[in-house]
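Ticket #4471: structure output looks truncated?

Reporter: J.K.
Steps to reproduce: submitted the chain below (127 residues) through the standard prediction queue, then opened the result file.
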Amino acid sequence: QVQLEEPGGGLVQAGGSLRLSCAASGGTFTNYAVGWFRQAPGKEREFVAVINRSGGTTYYADAVKGRFTASRDNAKSTVVLQMNSLKPEDTAVYYCAAVLTYFDFAAPREIPQYNHWGQGTQVTVSS
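Returned output as attached by the reporter:
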């Protein structure tokens, strides 16, 4: 089964950028779609972005569309979430998650669809 690790995260001022990485091991990475989710204090975990197996399809939450970009390097079994123009409301613990998909076009956006999760990394945006 695939295991996920998330280096990255940190503290940044509003308007700045951060780059989150999600490194996978223990599975055939090209069989998995990878999603990004976040959970702010006192709030439920929510969908942020997803990238399909080949990297050709991405979807984003409205709150981050135009500011965040997901990409993947299948040769390195890594997915990156580039976050630009960060806002204080982006402050949260960010999680990457993976799900085995049988079709390349599949890009799930619901939390229950994912069964492999990283440990999460804190992103704090100061105003």
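Triage note (M.O.): checked the attachment and the full token line is present. The mean pLDDT is 96.
Status: closed, working as intended.
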